[in-house]
Specification:
10 helices; 41% helix; globular
Length: 344
């Protein structure tokens, strides 16, 4: 009887993976690479909010699409429906023999470590990776971080130079250290150019669901605008759709996050803080195909082109030239290491 246990466990695993495969896109929808690199397969698992969030997930998706187009690799994506599916989704890609599996978002940090140790022949990457207290990563895991505070410092400066009331707002999704980094940089940027300005802060919640609650985002934004904030910066994923709606309705300006969100609310979005998840995804895939993939931590900031803000073209038309010049000078100082932006 004991000898049957391994078979039962194996059968259960196969059944679980087969069930999870229902989440996969149809085979015809998966971008198929061309040439000798078509055999290289990359799987990406989305964060809370999924594809279509007009934010971090969509930025990562752009990087994946670019890799398929320019590097010729074959790609697939999965969108977990809940926390228990994240690890299972990564396991599914690894069990199917994918060369690289990418988790989008800090909530993958613990799960990706577990799966990476279970599949040492597969490479893994995690965006917004939060390292364990020990600091020890599996050799096949690349933990990618961003110096978000550098990018939010710039939009904070834009907000401080734009406000007519002397009050601006910050609305975060989940109250956690990562989003606090955004807040810290934004506060510092505002006060660099407007020491007397007040920064109102609110968070949508304390769980990942705080990134997909546009109703709560709108309520928080309406409250801040009613109290006098005339520039609102959100770092809240899909919750931010509500923030942008409130800014429009209240006649104030908004600042988007992660990617250019101008088209979400034209005439309302003044600029957007750019977090180049697309660059990070593309670069880790390029390192894989060129045989340069290495486990460990890496960081993307202004100097690496990993963060920034929308400052050119029609989507930045509402920013005066003098403001752009001031912010450009601040950006150069940060990139050279002359100005250190606080992260807390």
């Amino acid at each position: 009887m004991p000898a049957a246990l391994p078979l039962r466990r194996a059968t259960a695993v196969v059944a679980a993976l087969a069930a999870l495969s229902l989440f996969l896109p149809a085979r015809g929808e998966a971008p198929r690479g061309e040439g000798e690199r078509a055999a290289v397969r990359v799987g990406l698992v989305f964060d809370v909010g999924g594809r279509g969030d007009k934010s971090f997930n969509d930025a990562a998706d752009l990087g994946l699409a670019r890799a398929a187009r320019e590097l010729g690799v074959t790609t697939e994506v999965l969108e977990p429906s809940g926390a228990e599916d994240r690890e299972a989704a990564m396991r599914l890609f690894a069990a199917r023999g994918f060369d690289l599996v990418i988790g989008v978002g800090f909530i993958f940090s613990t799960d990706v470590e577990v799966v990476a140790r279970g599949f040492p022949a597969t490479r893994f990457a995690c965006l917004d990776y939060a390292p364990p207290p020990s600091g020890a990563l599996p050799e096949n895991l690349a933990g990618i971080t961003f110096r978000e505070e550098e990018g939010t410092f710039l939009v904070g400066a834009v907000a401080g130079l734009t406000t007519a009331t002397g009050r601006v707002g910050f609305i975060g999704g989940m109250d956690m250290p990562l989003i606090r980094k955004f807040e810290a940089g934004y506060r510092a940027g505002v006060r660099e150019v407007c020491p007397a300005c007040d920064v109102s802060v609110a968070y949508a919640g304390t769980t990942p669901d705080a990134f997909r609650d546009p109703v709560k985002g709108k309520a928080l934004a309406v409250s801040q605008a009613a109290a006098g904030a005339d520039v609102l910066f959100h770092v809240s994923g899909a919750t931010g759709h509500g923030v942008l709606e409130a800014a429009r309705d209240m006649g104030v300006k908004a600042i988007g996050v992660d990617r250019d969100q101008h088209d979400e609310m034209p005439g309302t979005v003044l600029t957007s803080m750019i977090k180049r998840a697309d660059v990070a995804v593309f670069e880790v895939i390029r390192a894989l195909v060129e045989g340069r993939f290495e486990g460990g931590l890496s960081s993307f900031g202004l100097a690496e082109g990993g963060v920034g803000y929308v400052s050119e073209g029609p989507h930045a038309a509402g920013i005066p030239g003098a403001t752009k010049a001031r912010v450009s000078a601040l950006s150069a100082r940060i990139a050279r290491g002359e100005l250190v932006v606080p992260s807390r």
